Amino acid sequence: MRKLFSLLLVVAAMFAITACGGDSSPKSVADKAMSALQKKNYDEFVKYVNIKTKEGEDPEAARKMLSGMLQEKADKNYEKKGGFKSYEIVSETIDESGDKALVVVKMTFGNGETEEEDCPMVKDSEGNWKMDMGK
User: Fold this and answer.
1) Contact 43/69 with Cβ under 8 angstroms?
2) Rounded to 5 degrees, what angle do the CA atoms 47, 52, 54 make?
3) Would you list the domain boundaries of the chain?
4) Per CATH, which fold does 26-131 belong to?
5) How would residue 123 be classed by pLDDT, with cut points 50, 70 and 90?
6) Residue 114: what pLDDT?
7) What pLDDT, in 10s, does the model give residues 49-94?
8) Could you give the dihedral angle defined by the CA atoms of residues 128, 67, 56 and 130, in that order, rounded to the nearest 10 degrees?
9) Strands across the sheet with 114-123, in order?
10) CB 109 within 8 A of CB 77
11) In sequence order, what DSSP letters do the residues of 66-102 get, joined into one string?
12) Rg (CA), the chain
């Protein structure tokens, strides 16, 4: 009986960790971010970006600024290529520390052109995976 109780406790703890663990993998975060980017939902896209701010800076203001910059640049870039047609997650590599990862994404555009992008990922202070834009 005691072993059964211990086993149930372990299973319950695993469910709790999984449910509260935020975005569970770098691949799933990259997938959500690319989906938002494809839909031109830049405000949603920046939710998946690790925003580093200096002391006293407002992270939400930084997100809005990044969203605006993305809208301007991405729209022009995608328009030249006939639009952002589709994407595919090619690979996911998590480093030994478990705090950094690299997700490779293949993007296909309306003109048939494809690009593979390396998406560095990091865990934020809350343990959620985010895209690392290096700033």
Assistant:
1) no
2) 135
3) 26-131
4) Nuclear Transport Factor 2; Chain: A, (3.10.450)
5) very high
6) 97
7) 998 877 878 888 888 999 999 999 998 999 999 999 999 999 999 9
8) 10
9) 84-94, 100-109, 114-123, 129-131
10) no
11) HHHHHHHHHHHHHHHTT-EEEEEEEEEEE-TTSSEEE
12) 18
Question: Beta 84-94 vs 114-123: how paired, if at all?
Answer: unpaired
d(CA 86, CA 100): 26
Average pLDDT, stretch 103-113? 97
Q: Give the tokens for residue 4.
A: 């059964």
User: What is the mean predicted confidence (pLDDT) over 25-44?
Assistant: 96
Q: CB under 8 Å to 30, separation ≥6 — which residues?
A: 48, 89, 92, 103, 105, 119, 121, 131
With tokens 């975060």, the residue in question is 29
Cross-strand bridge partners of residue 89: 105
